[in-house]
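> call design_seq(struct)
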């Protein structure tokens, strides 16, 4: 525990030092008046630097750039995909500026993105907006919950597109930071990304009723994205049942390792080149480039960079995989974040979320609650039995839907005979108590037969619980509603 506290304290120091690089630009009270920003000198080219200084800056760089490098490496991995399809036969992938859709819940064997859910039909696409804008189609969902998560390279959302925004059916345009042009005829709205690299993840709610799963198919077949040059003003359709399968890049039980420490500093120059600095981050970029330049000319410094990345991954980033190590504390040991997909210069939370459950929605789209512990502070484990009871009238207040998902120690679904990985709005057979409350049973072995519709199967190992509230209402947004305790049964 002492080592963990030291590692988290070290992560905090990294963020503080990165912030100090740019404090004068971000905080008016810290500004020093100068004739112009251009007159502020930076590192002098060719300056000899010490190995210890290189290690310190490298440590900051690894933590700060981890999420952006993650996105960079995903685009690189998918760049040769010839057409929309399914990686490993289960995960939607597509060439840049297109997307692919599933037709049902995500397969439990998925390993490309941690913390998937089985409440929605997913899609996924990588954006590369340096070439041309991208057109996104929105069908008429006829009252069904939907949201398109559209984010930039920093994993910040830059488009409001979904049921909670009263978005109209039609065509929307995603453009890069330097695009100049008039809105094409027939385009409902233009959304500008602050970065050329980004992503789009449609989510469409579907219940576990086979009839509903069939009813959603015509809607899904109209969810497409394509370059502006392919736009003709006509709604296109695609039968997502007829798409190819590609070999998987992920193996094992953990999420695909999108950031490899030993290769991180080989990739970082490209990330800096493609990612415009936020206001005030110019000093960070200047100091990082100076260190990279020095290391490129000195094999010992280059080796120091590599080893520092390995150490930083182990000591700073890896501990943030555990939900209990970050976020806003709530009653009964739950935690949450209040700036999902709107991290800005909150470098700590951005990296923590990217490590543990990247691609979260904006707060007003989905509120996430994380739990590693029971109400007494002990680690959740399949060797114990638990209950989660929502009092009468105290289900998560949402306009969309809610769910409680169980993840194994790697933040993926735990295999079970029922093939049940979450409970919530989609489940029409949940049984309520006589007083109107709802009790969910979280355990490895089956509860009594009359309780099995409310059973969330657990593995015989550590696990986490994850409550999603899609389109949260005011009590959730204000913090007056929080999840109930996870009670360990004696």
């Amino acid at each position: 525990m002492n080592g963990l506290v030291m590692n988290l304290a070290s992560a905090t120091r990294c963020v503080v030092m990165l912030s100090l690089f740019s404090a004068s630009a971000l905080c008016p009270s810290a500004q020093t008046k100068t004739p112009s920003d251009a007159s502020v000198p930076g590192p002098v080219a060719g300056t000899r630097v010490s190995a210890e200084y290189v290690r310190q800056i490298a440590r900051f760089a690894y933590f700060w750039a981890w999420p952006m490098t993650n996105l960079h490496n995903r685009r690189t991995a998918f760049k040769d995909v010839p057409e929309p399809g399914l990686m490993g036969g289960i995960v939607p992938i597509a060439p840049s500026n297109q997307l692919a859709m599933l037709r049902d819940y995500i397969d439990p064997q998925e390993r490309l993105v941690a913390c998937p859910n089985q409440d929605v039909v997913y899609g996924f696409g990588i954006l590369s907006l340096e070439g041309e804008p991208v057109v996104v189609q929105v069908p008429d969902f006829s009252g069904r919950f939907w949201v398109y998560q559209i984010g930039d390279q920093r994993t910040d959302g830059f488009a409001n597109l979904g049921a909670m925004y009263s978005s109209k059916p039609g065509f929307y345009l995603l453009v890069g930071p330097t695009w100049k042009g008039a809105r094409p005829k027939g385009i409902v709205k233009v959304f500008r990304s602050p970065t050329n690299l980004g992503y789009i993840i449609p989510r469409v709610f579907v219940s576990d009723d086979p009839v509903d799963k069939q009813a959603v198919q015509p809607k899904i077949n109209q969810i497409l994205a394509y370059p502006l040059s392919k736009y003709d003003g006509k709604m296109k359709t695609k039968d997502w049942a007829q798409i190819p399968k590609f070999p998987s890049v992920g193996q094992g039980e953990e999420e695909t390792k999108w950031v490899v420490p030993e290769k991180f500093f080989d990739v970082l120059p490209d990330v800096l080149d493609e990612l415009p600095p936020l206001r005030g981050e110019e000093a960070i970029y200047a100091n990082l480039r100076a260190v990279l330049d020095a290391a490129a000319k000195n094999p010992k410094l280059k080796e120091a960079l590599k080893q520092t990345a390995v150490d930083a991954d182990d000591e700073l980033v890896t501990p943030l995989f555990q939900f209990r190590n970050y976020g806003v504390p709530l009653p009964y040991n739950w935690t949450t974040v209040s700036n999902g997909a709107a991290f800005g210069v909150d470098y700590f939370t951005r990296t923590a979320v990217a490590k543990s459950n990247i691609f979260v929605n904006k707060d007003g789209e989905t509120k996430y609650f994380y739990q590693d512990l029971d109400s007494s502070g002990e680690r959740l484990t399949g060797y114990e039995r638990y209950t989660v009871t929502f009092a009468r009238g105290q289900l998560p207040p949402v306009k969309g839907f809610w769910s409680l998902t169980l993840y194994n120690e790697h933040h993926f679904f735990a295999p079970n005979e029922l093939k049940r990985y979450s409970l919530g709005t989609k489940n029409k057979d949940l049984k309520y108590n006589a007083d109107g409350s709802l009790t969910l049973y979280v355990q490895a072995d089956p509860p009594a037969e009359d309780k099995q519709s409310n059973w969330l199967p657990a593995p015989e190992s550590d696990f986490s619980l994850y409550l999603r509230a899609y389109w949260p209402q005011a009590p959730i947004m204000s913090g007056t509603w929080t999840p109930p305790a996870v009670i360990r049964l004696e």
